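Q: Is it fine to ask for two folds in a single conversation?
A: Yes, each is treated on its own. Send the first.
Q: Here.
A: Result:
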Amino acid sequence: MKNKEYWLYILNNMKARKVRSWLTIIGIIIGIAAIVGLVTISKGMNYAVQEQFEKMGISSIRIVPGGLHGPPTGSLGLSLDIKEKIEHVKGVEYANPVLIDYATVEFDKEEEIVMINSYDTTLNEKAFLDTDLKTQAGRFFVSGEKGSIVLGADVAYDLFDKDISIKNTIVINGQKFKVIGIIEESGTDADDRIYMGLEDAQLLFNKKDFVNVFVVQTTNGIDTETVGKKIEQELLKTLQDEEFDVFTPEQLLKQIGAMLGVIQLVLASIASISLLVGAIGIMNSMFTGVLERTQEIGILKAIGATNGNILSLFIMEAGIMGSVGGVIGTTIGTGFAYIVEFGAHLAGYDIFSVQIEPAFLLEVLIFSFFVGAIAGAIPAYRAAKMKPVDALRYE
């Protein structure tokens, strides 16, 4: 049989059984759409998390209490005394001691629990340079400033019924603070926090000579991995009885990538179940097709069709079903991912962005063809092995 005859025969058979063909293809569509949609969304999550970490200081080294799970708040912390030890390490530009805790915030007779971030105000705007945060109103702290706070955008405009403005006074754990700045919306956790000077926070939370984390900025051009190892060696001499961890930007991104990779694998595995169901549907449809076309197969063999011709016909038909399902499923999955992106932007998560990779879509289309072809292989083999005489006698 010639190639053109192959295609005409396959398409005519699919048209003759179009209801069954489309019901079979729908299984592949659902499976491929789920894989493309979920994998694309998870890649968008990966990109968004990395972007968020870059905005929150991914260029810096973090020194945190050992065995930390989640934000370093409350009683988990390190001695403030090690700041000098850290800054004496070659390649360190400065160390920013950060005290973090939750407090009751009161404004316009409303109360909310908010995370408070504090840092050494002698650093001026340096403490915010590596986080890419900027004020949309007011300013950051000047050296040694006390009794002042800077608000994240969500705290200023969404947390309370009434918006907070520059020069407003709010009460934190019973103490009054003046708002001197509001940070422009970043789409990160920084929007939900209040910032104050380290000395104010130490008095507010009654934690002298104690911080939760050190954010270490390295000198430009210096390898952060090397500096991180030097800091760890120095602190091992000093903190012999205290556990601590030193995280470089590369380590943080590697950990995040590993976690998101597991999530992506789980999502793809779940979606693959739908694809497996679709493959079983193709196999079932092809088995039925072989039974219905038994006499037809006998006629084809009687006029000269070889076992290879019959095998190719049924495998190609199954492969076409898989390909059609792949094309439609890829389109639906991609559209679903963009709908999720649109919804995320409406919810204020502008940092979430769908990443469409043409190579991935091509791989999915090829994969869908092979899923169909493999699912049709057993029925095709059965059809190819039929004897012409037996097939012609079949009722």
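Q: Second one now.
A: Result:
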Amino acid sequence: MPDIVSPAATLLIAALLGYLLGSVPVGVLMARAYGLGDLRKIGSGNIGATNVLRTGNRTAAALTLLLDAAKGAAAVLAARALAAEDAAQAAGVAAFLGHLFPLWLKFRGGKGVATFLGTLLALAPLAGAAACLVWLAVAAAFRFSSLAALAAAALAPALAPLLGAPQTGLACLLMAALIFVRHDANIRRLLRGEEPRIGRKG
């Protein structure tokens, strides 16, 4: 983790604002804007881009993916510009937690993959880009969004120090662990051969 140089109040404010930004339920809002219904009652019920894609609306899914990633990146970049790297990391991790446990949805949020990748891209661009490439490669090879997410999350804590960002290792490990926890049902379906592939309507 980075050296703690910011006052405790600054870190707390950065984390709070990051959490509130991460809590914005982009997928739910996109589904509503495009007349797709309540996303929480579609497919897996998840609020992320993969479930939006199950509605058949690729534009809404792409926007959800980009904006969910942007939540994490924006939190990091804003905190870095206004404070220091410790505040940036606090804001980014808090944005990730906000997506998982959003205030506006009674703390029942998404699985955090896009927000994780956006946060990592802003914290450590090379490690973030490498994690994105892992996601793309696994998704293209196997057509399972969950498997791609798990692979990217599993490798990110190792990629960060290897690619010059050891200060993000602990944050990566925390977020990766939560991604695995949130994918518990997906892991069980993968093992049973029942996991839906990318693009399947539900």
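Q: Anything structural to flag on that second result?
A: Two points. The chain has a mean pLDDT of 94. Residues 47 and 86 are 29 Å apart (CA to CA).
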